[in-house]
Amino acid sequence: MNGEKVAVARTVGNDCVLGASVALGADTANLTEAYKHFKDEAQSLSPDYSPETVNTDGWN
């Protein structure tokens, strides 16, 4: 982004992209912030929303 390397936090389920957000770094703090956008949007539609499964692809 503007010449800087970024990561894209994607939320996917049942072969459908549910959300994507730019993370300014590929570390826990930046990815947590990026994935929080999906969490906030999902919970605005359904306050009790909670994922059934999670795959962290190697991240802690």
Structural write-up:
This protein is α+β, with helices and mostly antiparallel strands and 60 residues long. Helix content is 30%, strand content 25%. It is built from 1 helix and 2 strands; from the N terminus they run ββα. It has a two-stranded antiparallel sheet. β1 and β2 (16-23) form a beta hairpin. The radius of gyration is 12 Å and the shape is globular. The mean pLDDT is 86.
Structural class of the helix and strand makeup? alpha+beta
Order of helices and strands: EEH
What spatial order of strands do you see in the largest sheet? 1-2
User: What is the number of helical segments per DSSP (H or I, 4+ residues)?
Assistant: 1
**Unreliable segments (pLDDT under 50, ≥5 consecutive)?**
none
Kindly report the average pLDDT value: 86
Largest sheet descriptor: 2 strands, antiparallel
Strand content range: 25-35%
What's the number of extended β-strand segments? 2
Amount of helix: 25-40%
The end-to-end span amounts to 25 Å
> What does the radius of gyration come to?
12 Å
Shape: globular
